[in-house]
Amino acid sequence: MKWSIIAAAGFLVFSGCQSFKYYDPNKPHRGKTQFYNNYDNSPKASFWKWQWERLTSNAPTEPPFQPEVLKTDTAYLKQNRTENTLTWIGHASALLQVEGLNILVDPVFSDRVSPVSFMGPKRQVALPFPIEELPPIDVVVISHAHFDHLDLPTLRKLAKQNDKALLFLVPLGLESLLKSEDIDNVKELDWWENTQVKNVTLTFTPAQHWSQRSLWDRNKTLWGGWYIQAPSLKFFYSGDTGYSKDFLDVFNRFGASDIAMIPVGAYEPKWFMKQQHVDPEQAVQMHLDLQSKLSIGVHWGTFRLSDEAMAAPPEDLKIALQKMNVSPEAFRVMKHGEVLKLKK
């Protein structure tokens, strides 16, 4: 008995000392035990302090949030194979149609973004259309593991609808999660790795964030954004991020983007959120770093994830644009369900 206990303890110690599967001494973001950011790995601010502040503060009553939801012309999206379009489904979910490909970005069609279906952040705005009305999807890109970006019920439905024809592109560490859900056509990428689908190149890019889906897997999977290059369009989606030099790095590698999807929500309280989410002023700075011809503000107005009012991000974005002398035509938000036709 004594020796079995010693052997078990030794096994646990040995297991704990084994290298992280993705460890690479030549890549600083792939550490011995987890993934890291490129520029800021300071300790995260206290989640419990934030929750205590919420419980003990006398926050003013927020007015009702009733944004306009457009009825998406899904018949047009289904037949379209010539025009480049972007459709905002809500939060960070979007449909990009480029060069005849249908690419879904961080699709979430569930009612809640949570590990359980009966609690957690609930959809505050109706979906503009059900998942069944999507056109046939060719590629799904996922930015990171958080539940408001990687929604397994949605991914399972998409996989069943499209069988083996649909390619799922995910950050390092997430392929096994999708395959455990019988989603087989999965490819995981490291920062700056890319894959080609027809004449479109999709590259996974760095961001300032973190990942977690359980108590035991913090930063065990990578996070980032997607740069999608086609002959007629250069599209960038940052994923969730705090402000960092990563976006100057993206510009230096790819040049100016035609259109960028940049988060503008989930920024209050700033002392807690600033390492992981940009506020509207920082989002405008990202727009400038990327030299984007047009930026679209996302990650707002769908799920309540932070303390700013649901309607605040577009108003704060207007203030930031004026302060930083950027045209409101260069950085705007879309209505839920809106289809934007992109010039080639």
From TrEMBL:
InterPro entries named in the record: Metallo-B-lactamas, NAPE-PLD, RibonucZ/Hydroxyglut_hydro
Gene Ontology terms, MF aspect: N-acylphosphatidylethanolamine-specific phospholipase D activity; zinc ion binding
Gene Ontology annotations for the cellular component aspect, listed alphabetically: cytoplasm
Highest taxon above the source species: Bacteria
Alphabetic keyword roster: Hydrolase
Hydrolase as UniProt keyword: yes
Gene3D superfamilies associated with the record: Ribonuclease Z/Hydroxyacylglutathione hydrolase-like
Domain Metallo-beta-lactamase: 102-300
Name of this chain's protein: MBL fold metallo-hydrolase
Organism this protein belongs to: Bdellovibrio bacteriovorus
Upper lineage: Bacteria, Pseudomonadati, Bdellovibrionota, Bdellovibrionia, Bdellovibrionales
